[in-house]
Amino acid sequence: MGKKAMLKSLTVIFLILGFCYVSVASELRKNGERKTYIVHMAKSEMPASFDDHTTWYHASLTSVSDSAEMLYTYNNVLHGFSTRLTAEEAQSLENQPGILSVLPELKYELHTTRTPEFLGLDKSADLFPESDSLSEVIIGILDTGIWPESKSFDDTGLGPVPSSWKGQCEVGTNFTTSNCNRKLIGARFFSRGYEATLGPIDESKESKSPRDDDGHGTHTSTTAGGSVVTGASLFGYASGTARGMATRARIAAYKVCWIGGCFSSDILAAMDKAIYDNVNVLSMSLGGGMSDYYRDSVAIGAFAAMEKGILVSCSAGNAGPSSYSLSNVAPWITTVGAGTLDRDFPAFVSLGNGLNYSGVSLYRGELLPSKMLPFVYAGNASNVTNGNLCMMGTLISEKVSGKIVLCDRGVNARVQKGAVVKAAGGVGMVLANTAANGEELVADAHLLPATTVGQKSGDAIKSYLFSDSNPTATILFEGTKVGIEPSPVVAAFSSRGPNSITPEILKPDVIAPGVNIIAGWSGSVGPTGLAIDTRRVGFNIISGTSMSCPHVSGLAALLKAAHPDWSPAAIRSALMTTANIACKNGEMIQDVATGKPSTPFDHGAGHVDPVSALNPGLVYDLNISDYVNFLCALNYTTSQINSVARKNFTCDSSKQYSVTDLNYPSFAIPLQAALTGGNSGGTTVVKHTRTLTNVGLPATYKVTVHSQTESVKISVVPDTLSFTQQNEKKSYTVTFTAGSMPANTNSFARIEWSDGKHINETLVVVFDVVL
Ligand SMILES: *[C@@H]1O[C@H](CO)[C@@H](O)[C@H](O)[C@H]1NC(C)=O
Ligand SMILES: *[C@@H]1O[C@H](CO)[C@@H](O)[C@H](O)[C@H]1NC(C)=O
Ligand SMILES: *[C@@H]1O[C@H](CO)[C@@H](O)[C@H](O)[C@H]1NC(C)=O
Ligand SMILES: *[C@@H]1O[C@H](CO)[C@@H](O)[C@H](O)[C@H]1NC(C)=O
Ligand SMILES: *[C@@H]1O[C@H](CO)[C@@H](O)[C@H](O)[C@H]1NC(C)=O
Ligand SMILES: *[C@@H]1O[C@H](CO)[C@@H](O)[C@H](O)[C@H]1NC(C)=O
Ligand SMILES: *[C@@H]1O[C@H](CO)[C@@H](O)[C@H](O)[C@H]1NC(C)=O
Ligand SMILES: *[C@@H]1O[C@H](CO)[C@@H](O)[C@H](O)[C@H]1NC(C)=O
């Protein structure tokens, strides 16, 4: 770098620093402004002079601020309240007696049906519980609300609302009590935290009521528990019968997500009510940045729910295929990744050189003229450096008018790219994956004739575009195709392990269908969700771990109905130990991001198999004390433990706690950590104990270890477990002996308990070698 250039860049740096300095200063000034805090109180420390806890909460608050408003008080998820405080007030409140923690609010985001057949639910209806017991199960959904007019909420044939139900149908903009029925038994909305931060809800854009103006909440709710609707389709695509996983379960909607996001004070208030209302399953297709469990509202609320016997199913996130990209990893949450179905929506690109490339699309409307059309790469039709992405206002009309335009995937919404091409005068679009998405094909209901192609096809099409002086193309739509093999494969977007908070707990737990899923939709928006999309549809096809999570929520409802006495941990164990790691064609499930077999960091225990999960034989159960011991093993302080567990728990200082003692249905062993506790002679020996509970008939199980590696030896003692009665518990110990392993390698194994007849236990084992 020349001296002059250096000086110039120094100046620039100086200016940037100066700017930062100014903004830091204004940040400091802003500290006088209020933010939302969630205040956890140690209820057991309430002074005797108070006769109820709310007066005590108010007194604590007024001791630091006489003007702060109380947004919510919480009774079930935690003892405490949320309020607006300055940073100074928050700090002085934290030092008051009886305060466990004062945590700043976090913002969460949404993790944006042929499924029943794919999961084998159609052929085995008789295996599932009588509709009477299923209709006692209530699934609570925290999301963008509900479109009650959806046909999926038809309550024909359902008996009275379960007597356990204590919830409400809350009245608000365009929503009355008559919008609830025997299927949609409750609907509430939570906006105080949102409005305290972002100002009053703009009712010209979204309803201040449980009404869903986004579509996401209606989609997730109807996936979990929608009634059977015949003749469902999106513009004729995926036509057939749409139904949720648990068609006779009841739905309760808790609207916590608004245009600007989902705020933790509202999420906690909704979970607080859902626990009070007596839901049996909570489905949450949202997530936020990763933080320790005592700071994470979803983890805190889920702990209270778990203690009440409510299974909490959450999406793993859409930040894949990078490692360590998971959300919602607390061991008392069921964390769900996404796989594909055996259904596709093919739409071919045919090039002027005679070659064809297959893609996918949900476009319906006027087709392209039946001749080859001029074809251009967006990067060659724009003056900006990222012109290839087709961002708003970046295409030069003269260069795209009347042409098909190739845009690269990434940054802005896929459907928006189509809208940008259309606005600039383009007549069609080819959307090409880049390395981030590989060969994963997500179909969209584009506003113009368009198809999405994988990275390999995209690269081939680009080399044609760059080498031909007069490139041409056309797009041919072929409707819906089923029976696609291999399926399932792990979606590239599905977030991956290892678990960044507790690497010893393998996450995700399972995968379920999350690509191109059809379910109910809101009448307020079109299928693309774009403001310019004036189309209205009863069903929409969208993708994300947001879609896989409610599949597992619905399956958990089925299992709860079949086994009302099972704990959330037992239900999750049944789903995990019976999950498939092979496709229907017998080959190992693949990762679409690599084209190679997927690993437990991608698929957890595997793809859910609900029919097998009904009768797992054995389960790994967990109760509240097990989870508190786990928190002790994390070396959390008493305040941190009680922020999660609410009661006055203390760890026994004479006891040795270990994270790996948690009776989880999988093992994850970070070898580096293990090595520090092992001997220094090159081999590491780690022993773990697990306890199985018999939930089947009396039987004798024998163990088989399937290992892919020579460098780690696995032995199990005893190798036979005999159960003579129901609910009997038996333990076994696994010894892992690791020799020297190459750095940064992972190896995987399975421990299988089988009774030799029909029950087959598979346990995932992972070694995460970080040396
Ligand atoms: C919490 O438990 C500890 C140990 O059992 C006890 O010493 C302490 O007094 C308890 N605190 C309250 C407020 O009950
Ligand atoms: C109210 O809901 C109906 C559907 O029931 C819808 O047609 C109408 O546009 C909605 N009105 C507002 C203001 O959102
Ligand atoms: C490409 O697809 C079109 C339409 O399906 C077909 O007519 C043509 O033969 C195909 N060409 C090749 C090379 O596969
Ligand atoms: C079009 O863009 C590609 C990639 O950016 C570039 O290699 C090529 O030279 C461009 N073609 C024209 C005609 O500008
Ligand atoms: C793009 O660049 C060309 C040549 O540099 C210029 O003539 C044209 O006006 C620019 N167009 C836009 C939309 O900026
Ligand atoms: C939880 O389970 C453990 C081990 O099975 C048992 O020792 C303990 O008593 C149980 N605790 C509760 C509160 O049920
Ligand atoms: C907790 O502290 C113990 C003793 O210092 C240590 O051995 C252990 O690794 C710590 N556990 C975690 C999860 O940090
Ligand atoms: C258990 O599952 C494995 C595949 O995971 C299969 O090879 C084996 O035959 C099964 N055993 C029994 C007893 O069903």
From TrEMBL:
It holds the Pfam family Inhibitor_I9. Residues 200-225 are annotated as: Disordered. GO terms for cellular component: extracellular region. This is Subtilisin-like protease SBT1.7. Residues 390-461 form the PA domain. Residues 136-590 form the Peptidase S8/S53 domain. One of its GO terms (biological process) is system development. It comes from the Eukaryota.
